[in-house]
Design goal:
about 270 residues, Immunoglobulin-like, about 45% strand, binds 2-acetamido-2-deoxy-beta-D-glucopyranose, signal, Ig-like_dom_sf, Ig-like_dom, Ig-like_fold, Ig-like domain-containing protein
């Protein structure tokens, strides 16, 4: 009796189905259905599948029970309702309609149970955040093909429509744009388009200063979702130092005299500054 019981327990532990992959997108666009998939497997000779259940939070929204009629049932169709479900002994897919509440986090659980002798149950949960993520990297405009040291310029970084709207940060040679505390949230946000989505932009006023012949600029757009969704664009600004531009202007190899002249003029200009 005891031996049988121990053997029975052993069998139960080994013969549960395993969830091999739970596919729940991190972000779900409320204007499209989200497709969720639960993959499972069992070992040869294991008891058959009893049921697969999907939960949103703690509420069951879908059930597949191959031994019953009907085989599939949907529940609680009001919030994150299931529109379609298609399951077999390896995979169970459902499509859900998401609420239009941006940044809302929904958790989805797939629960697989195995037939007799014991209804062994395995489950896995993943979260989905309702958001329309940026489809493209931000666009940086206003970068001239080259600039002079000390030149002032204004660049603009814009994102496409998204929700929630992105916060934009500029980085110059890897360092965040110098901002005063009241400037940190300097991202401007457009009005909502027909789908309720908003674009962001932020301009950067810059006086060119570098010891090298280029500046590395980076615009980073971050949607405050969980986890944050980040897209960024790099741009390189070529900086022509005065002697380099004279070299190019002459179009010939410089003579020693020219170099001397340049050195002199540089010294003078540095002294003048
Ligand atoms: C299920 O998981 C157990 C323990 O992780 C493993 O021993 C078994 O081989 C797995 N079975 C399948 C079909 O993946
Ligand atoms: C449906 O959702 C309600 C709350 O939203 C919950 O009380 C109820 O138990 C759910 N039904 C099922 C079958 O999970
Ligand atoms: C899902 O979100 C909840 C809070 O809403 C959190 O406690 C949990 O750790 C998250 N799970 C994963 C897998 O990120
Ligand atoms: C930056 O781009 C946005 C969107 O194209 C535009 O509305 C805004 O006026 C621009 N700002 C500057 C300072 O050019
Ligand atoms: C901007 O402000 C919003 C709320 O007003 C905040 O959630 C966000 O983190 C801020 N962004 C930055 C970059 O400080
Ligand atoms: C942009 O620059 C950063 C470092 O400043 C680098 O990590 C990243 O890979 C670059 N991205 C592209 C697309 O070149």
């Amino acid at each position: 009796m005891t031996v049988l019981l121990v053997f029975g327990l052993f069998v139960v532990i080994v013969t549960a189905h395993n969830i091999t992959l739970l596919e729940v997108p991190r972000y779900g666009d409320p204007y499209r259905e989200a497709n969720l998939k639960c993959h499972y497997a069992n070992d040869k000779g294991d008891p058959p599948l009893h049921s697969v259940k999907w939960y949103r939070g703690n509420n069951e929204i879908f059930r597949y029970s191959p031994g019953q009629q009907p085989q599939t049932r949907t529940f609680n169709t009001t919030i994150a309702g299931v529109t379609r479900g298609s399951c077999n002994e390896h995979v169970c897919s459902i499509s859900v309609v998401l609420p239009r509440t941006y940044n809302m986090r929904l958790s989805f659980t797939c629960e697989v149970s195995t037939e007799r002798p014991r209804f062994a149950v395995v489950k896995q949960t993943k979260n989905l955040t309702v958001a329309v993520t940026l489809k493209d990297d931000p666009l940086v405009v206003g970068v001239p093909s080259s600039a002079q040291l000390g030149e002032d310029m204004e660049l603009n970084c814009t994102t496409g429509p998204a929700m929630p709207p992105a916060n934009i940060m500029w980085y110059i040679d890897g360092r965040p744009e110098r901002t005063e505390p009241w400037m940190v949230n300097n991202t401007k946000v457009s009005g909502a388009n027909d789908f309720g989505l908003r674009s962001s932009w932020r301009s950067l006023r810059l006086r060119v200063a570098t010891a090298r012949d280029y500046l590395h600029l980076r615009c980073e757009a971050t949607q405050p979702t969980w986890p944050p969704y980040v897209r960024s664009t790099n741009a390189t600004l070529m900086v022509a130092s005065p002697h380099l531009s004279m070299f190019t202007a002459s179009g010939t190899k410089s003579t020693l005299a020219e170099i001397f002249l340049l050195a002199a003029s540089c010294t003078i200009s540095i002294k003048c500054v």
